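Why does residue order matter? Because the sequence determines the fold. Keep that principle in mind as you read this record.
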Amino acid sequence: TAAGSTKPATLETGYILQVPPFVEEGEYIRVDTRTGEYMERVSLKK
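Structure:
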């Protein structure tokens, strides 16, 4: 994949944003609420 490539993702709320190609459906991500941009994947391990 090309550096800096992204793909659209739709959140449970219906909000659409651009994420890296390695993010898959069902994964949790952190979104910067100030900008609405993807920040990182999140692990929910306990």
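Residues 7-42 form a domain with the OB fold (Dihydrolipoamide Acetyltransferase, E2P) fold (CATH 2.40.50.140).
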